[in-house]
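[step 3/7] fold_predict: job queued, chain A
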Amino acid sequence: MIRKVWPLVVAAVSLGIDAYVLAGVLPQMADSLATTVGAIGLGVTAFTAAYAVAGTTLSKPAAKGSAQRGLLLALGLFNGANLITALSPNLPVFLGSRVLSGAGAGVLTAVATTAAASLAPEEQRGRAMAMVTFGLSTGTVAGVPVGMLIGEQIGWRWTMGLVVLVGVVSMAALALRGGEIPAIPDEPGSGASAIRSPQVLFGILLAFVFGVTSLGLYTYMLPTAADRGLRAWGFALIWVWGIGGVAGSMLIGKQIDAVGSRRLLPVLATALLASFAVVAFLPQPVAWLAAVLVWGATGWAGVPTLQDALTRSRPGATTTIVAFQMAAMYLGSAVGSALGTALLGGGTPAGDLPMWAAGAQVVAVALAVIVGTMGEGAATARAGRKDRAEAGRAC
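[step 4/7] structure written:
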């Protein structure tokens, strides 16, 4: 199974780099394009908005009849747009390229996750979906610092060149091995109607809150640490968070298949809440390092766990559900960052931000319990329908 899924993992790596690397080179980009950092920051908003719209509307049409074709189309758009970003002569071209890149990324994430799930037997489905998240986290953890270093040494355009290079490698891998990816099933109720399920709606809301808390607070890790007297530990904390993310997304797959995503989801949400509480109330470096490790691990592990919890009993709707889930998570990240800016602008000390995140995470724990409980009911109902269908065929 791993051999079949690895081209999808490489594609996710390029997305993981692109989604976060711009934050580290905003000043260089602003100087190069003769504009402000705030104007360049609109590129992140444009990317996120296009990701949400395209992922939820274009993923199924793009993959209809051939998952390989859908993936290659999404990667082609993603890579082409990033090349335009690298060559942008001015702000309008730059912003337009970020819209196109976000559109390609939105389709790519949903189709790649669904394709990975379709390549694995049901008992390894969680592991396959977690591998795509592993690619995202690895791209963020390893690729972003390398991209920032490249930007500082030889320019931000070469940083975007790194993203394009990884994307081209993934396209080549898919072109050579993508024929093994089966067509994505188009079952009744697998379109927009799939998100009308109460469990899916609660799950999408949970993804949004996860984005607000985990990714939103991550934006302010350095000023939060500095405010708590841990400025010298900032770089180490960033790396520990990333290491936790890679480890969590790498290890959670087997646990999803063995224990069940519906049982794991409340556990992960509660562990994330506990990590925020430690960061909020304990200023010791060792406590922060341990909590940040758990924060990164549970935050990233929650992504495939939620995907599996929402799609295990409705596999034909995986593309639609994952598209809405990931769009909600990215939107939550943007909202969380904006809320952090508003709180800091209103005079809230950076060191108090973890308490605000912990308060929001209490909501996430409640939602995780609801999603898990509803998932058990959905699985029981699906098993009953399957048994009745088999009994009908036997008669």
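[step 5/7] annotate
Residues 353-394 form the longest helix (42 residues).
Residues 158 and 207 are 33 Å apart (CA to CA).
exit 0
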